[in-house]
Amino acid sequence: xxxxxxxxxxxxxxxxxxxxxxxxxxxxxxxxxxxxxxxxxxxxxxxxxxxxxxxxxxxxxxxxxxxxxxxxxxxxxxxxxxxxxxxxxxxxxxxxxxxxxxxxxxxxxxxxxxxxxxxxxxxxx
Length: 125
Hints:
This protein is mostly beta strands. The chain has a single domain, classed as Sandwich (Jelly Rolls). 3% of the residues lie in helices and 46% in strands. It contains 1 helix and 10 strands. A 5-stranded antiparallel sheet has the order 1-2-9-4-7, with no helix packed on it. A 5-stranded antiparallel sheet has the order 6-5-8-3-10, with no helix packed on it. Strand 1 and strand 2 (27-34) form a beta hairpin. The longest helix is centred in the N-terminal third of the chain and has 4 residues, at 3-6. The N and C termini lie far apart (47 Å).
């Protein structure tokens, strides 16, 4: 399997850091660090779910159908089922790090629509 097939996001977006911690054809664990305001844009996975585990945050996970925004603090997690469009955003000014467990199943990254960014809710306080 080529790198483009198992790491399709590399041609779609750039964030501060993406570290592949574990990877097979059907399961992947990534550590992503977003700088303040950075976003992993709208996308979905046709055959795999995403499990987000916030390590240092917060991070906001936006989803469609139905529309929802979940703010995760360090230690919190959220699962997004396959075929549900979502994006991840760092609403803060510092770095935010999360683990992304993807699988089990063949992986793909499908951009959604025109990549319009939602109105983000800034951190209060």
